[in-house]
Amino acid sequence: MPTLWNEAYNAKNEPAESQIIEFVKTPLWNDLDSHLKQKYNIQPQLFYSNCSMDKGHWKGWNVKYKKSGKSFCTLYPKEGYFLALVPVSAKDLDEAEILIKLCDKYTQDLYHETKSGHTGKSLAMEVKNKKILRDVKSLVALRLSPYR
Questions:
Q1: pLDDT tens-digit profile of 40-95?
Q2: 13 contacts: CB under 8 Å, gap ≥ 6
Q3: Residue 37 has pLDDT above 60, yes or no
Q4: Contact of 127 with 36, CB cutoff 8 Å
Q5: Is residue 20 part of a domain?
Q6: Checking phi first, is residue 61 left (phi over 0); if not, alpha (psi -120 to 50) or beta?
Q7: Are 143 and 118 in contact (CB under 8 A)?
Q8: Most CB atoms closer than 10 Å: which of 87, 133, 136, 148?
Q9: How far apart are alpha carbons 83 and 75 in whole angstroms?
């Protein structure tokens, strides 16, 4: 099997959920998927992106978790791990500043290195261990808080 996701599954070759799980080869994927489905009642949707920016990291099939038209997390399969693109809206930046102090050093560094735009920040997190997975869940919770 090719090691690049976009080589394994092109625009005409949509992967099944089992093929995604087999490609990423980590239970962290299932953990996050189950968490988002059960806690927030979000059903994932497959999308194909032709974006060739960032050496192909964003090209190919990805899995979006959306609710009420807003994207809360997008997962990009990689061999042995996955990227989680987590948006932090501008209105959540103050809370994120507090939360980020409790996160892993990797997440803290990524957060501080990521530039803010008028809509906030989008963190592209390499989910390779349980600490980063915990941080992804915490950051997603900022946007999906039932009190908003």
A1: 999 999 999 876 555 555 678 999 999 888 889 999 999 899 999 999 999 999 99
A2: none
A3: yes
A4: no
A5: yes
A6: beta
A7: no
A8: 136
A9: 6
> Is residue 131 situated within a structural domain?
yes
Whose tokens are 């501008």? That residue is: 90
Q: How far is CA 61 from CA 84, 112, 118, in A?
A: 13, 28, 27
Q: Domain range for residue 26? A: 5-86+123-144
Edge-first strand order for the sheet with 60-67 is 44-49, 60-67, 70-78, 81-89, 120-127
Looking up tokens 């979000």, which residue turns up?
42
> Residue 3 pairs with which residues in a beta bridge?
none
In angstroms, the CA 131 to CA 139 distance is 12
**Within a domain: residue 49?**
yes
Q: What is the pTM of this model?
A: 0.89
- Amino acid identity of residue 139, one-letter, is L
Q: How far apart are alpha carbons 92 and 11 in whole angstroms?
A: 35
